[in-house]
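Exercise: predict the fold of this chain.
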Amino acid sequence: MTPYEAIISKRDLRVYTDQPIADDVMHRILQAGRMAGSAKNVEANRLVLVTDQAVQDSLVEAGEFSSWIGSSAAIVGFASPVAELRLFDVGRQAQNMMIAAHAEGVGTCPVTLQHSDKARAAVGLPDDWDMRMVITLGYPVQDHPDSPLKRTRVALDDLIVHNRWA
């Protein structure tokens, strides 16, 4: 699978088998996140790898649309010091990891956590750190249902504005 093929074929998945992710596969996925660029090379974010079921269940309470995340093999949280919050860096790390996971046959889905206090408590983050986003990881079930939000993507010609808006 080429990088381009991995990017255009990756889909967000929310239903996984109970198969654990092998250590070497998880290492490559986490390494892909580590290698993402960082604004001014600060590398302020930390990755919180959650495989403990009790911690995963606690993270369910941290999101508005996250009731299903405890069924994944692993959750990776993106923790950032509040003073150095760099959400673009978080997005770059997450996308690297999701593409690497897809190339390994592992499904993923990004999840926003709206309740910072509950996310902090779930993973023991200090008050001056925040974890607003996680990704779930797991091997996809054979007959994964389509998303109820599935739609045709915006055409490339409709997506691009050349040079100036109007």
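Check your answer against the key: The mean pLDDT is 92.
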